[in-house]
Amino acid sequence: MNRQTRADHLLSQLDDLNEQQLRRLLVEHLTRQKLGLYWESNLIERDAALNADIVLPRRVEAWCHTPQQSDNPNRKTDSVLETESVFLHRNLIIEGDNFDALRLLKATHAGKIRVIYIDPPYNTGNKDWVYNDRYVGANDRWRHSQWLEFLYRRLTLARDLLTTDGVIMVSINDENRARLELLMDEVFPGMRVGSFVWKTRQGSNDAKGAFLSVDHEHVIVYANDGFSFIGFEKTYQTYYNPDNDPFGVWSSDTLSCAKNYKERPNLFYPIIDPLTGISYPCNPERVWVYASKNNLYDGQMLRAKTMEEYIADGKVIFPTKQRVEIWSTMESLLNAIDNGDVPGSGNTLMLRRELPELDFWIGRPVGFGRPRFKRYKTDLVNDTKPLSSWIVPNSEKRQYDTDSSFVAGSNQEGARDVLAIFGNKTFHYPKPRSLLLNLLSQSTRPNDIVLDFFAGSGTTGQAVLELNAEDGGQRRFILCSNTEATAKEPEKNLCRDVCAERVRRVISGYGGKPGYPPEQGGEFAYLQLDKFEPADVLFEATMKHAYLMLALKRLGGVRAMPEGKLKWLGRLGDCDVVLCEQVNAKSVKALAAWPKQTGAARLAVYSPRPVTVREQLAALGVEANCYGLLDVLLRGQGGNVWQE
């Protein structure tokens, strides 16, 4: 569709738009002029896609992975609770379009996901992604707009899933980094943290013009205010206490900052050792980091002490063995400057002809050493070093100081992992496990939920399992993947046969393959997605849909629905959550007896008729919080909530 045809198509829609839709188009047109990213999009189509239908989960029992019942920590023994079906799967693998999966998660996990990592399609034009059921090729003139709109719809949903200290990390190639960062700035304003540079392979001969081999990618990081990477533990080998300082061990640090004397003239001044009278010139290219009391104006407030106060406190270390020179005349000083025989740092002379107040240095002892700052270990703000933005290639780690850097393998490592698990290259371009292990070990806490809605071969799920096995954590993963079925391959199912199967094999220990980690343990539920018109949910959605939605919202996981009219979901604190399929005298009587039989102090009941249940239980002397089933099915996805 060319630009004129597209414009004609949009104009033809105007006759069918209502007042609210026309207002939205006008507002969008009037406010679109701004600095940032612009792409062809249709806000009405965007809204229609978001609210077109209701997405509900369906559990596929045969494809779930459940531990042996003897090892089931959720098992209950009370006869009222259906004992064989109470296992709660807290890890989820969701098959389907990730746009639909994100709409479901917005209803069940809003504000609950702490870490999101995605490796989206890179828009290379090499049939690496599908939009609206067709491949987007390199010659598609709307390729970039379609890619941006494709990601925008998903990222705006993902944003609402993050916790108040949550983070999203996105892998991207060099070609599309600029477009993606502008898009991320729009979706996550003010949340940019930075990016990592990752070497994906060794340099090769397939250079694309200008004799340049692109062998790196980026991981872009955006986060809410409360997030920070864990960092690397600092080493204290440089801290010691040779002078028995009562404040403890200390390390010698620089007294200069990265500003020159023209940028910060108030920090350009000589320092005098009060004990020896030796003067030390300031580096004109790196002035002192602390101000002198002599350079302050009346009423000026400082965030730190003055240099004189630090000297009085003994925190400035003066050289004890050094050359000291006295120039008795200006001529002798200028000769020394011309000969380069003055204090210096590298190629920088501390005294130069053009510097101000050279006469200060006449007739006084001048030290050739450099004063340093005494930095105590007890004054450190934290015990970790910030991360380096450079991810060191595993093959080159001997060439780098890696104390504050990730060390990760290339794409070849990812391919070897898949080959080891499946015996063939069943998935192209998987991310290396070491990259995900590094990112998640630095961004997650032991009980966090990790979401990957471009899960591919399931590397993120494997990394979560291995981190849990390493530190005893209880991290949970949610992996979303599509089948990638086509007309030629209608039975293809990437999510089931690669992503879920990989996680299953990792849980079981790679089938005992030598050189690979042993059984990791773990579980997952496999979900497919059903979609309904909002008006049809009441008539077409099943009790299983309601049970799964309720379990996801209240418990953060899913269970196989038990038999019987009363279906137990779980206990939250001292409150049992129960789904009542039919409201009649028998079910109300069973609900009234529930607390006494199970020991629950409180009861939360979901049913098609919540008001009736509440009133009839109250008549029997039982108080319960009662909620409607349709509210469970619709809330968070639009539509009108039905009330009794």
Topology summary:
Blueprint: H1 3-12, H2 19-31, H3 43-51, E1 54-59, E2 92-95, H4 98-108, E3 113-118, E4 130-131, E5 134-135, H5 143-159, E6 162-173, H6 177-187, E7 192-199, E8 216-223, E9 232-233, E10 250-253, E11 271-272, E12 279-280, H7 307-312, E13 316-317, E14 324-325, H8 330-338, E15 344-345, E16 348-349, E17 366-367, E18 372-376, E19 384-385, E20 390-393, E21 407-408, H9 411-422, H10 433-443, E22 449-452, H11 459-471, E23 476-481, H12 494-508, E24 525-532, H13 537-540, H14 543-555, E25 566-572, E26 575-580, H15 585-598, E27 602-607, H16 610-619, E28 625-628, H17 629-634
Parallel strand pairs: 2-23, 2-24, 3-6, 3-22, 7-20, 20-21, 22-23, 26-27, 27-28
Antiparallel strand pairs: 1-24, 4-5, 6-8, 7-8, 9-19, 10-18, 11-12, 13-18, 14-17, 15-16, 25-26
Helix pairs in contact: 4-5, 5-6, 10-11, 11-12
Task: Describe the model.
- By secondary structure, the chain is an alpha/beta fold.
- It folds into 3 domains: 34-67 and 92-232 and 387-529, Vaccinia Virus protein VP39 (Rossmann fold); 250-379, no CATH class; 555-634, no CATH class.
- It has an 11-stranded mixed β-sheet with strand order 1-24-2-23-22-3-6-8-7-20-21, with helices on both faces.
- Helix 4 packs parallel to helix 5 and helix 5 packs parallel to helix 6 (177-187).
- The longest helix is centred in the N-terminal third of the chain and has 17 residues, at 143-159.
- The two termini are 48 Å apart.
- The model is unreliable at 70-84 and 639-644 (pLDDT under 50).
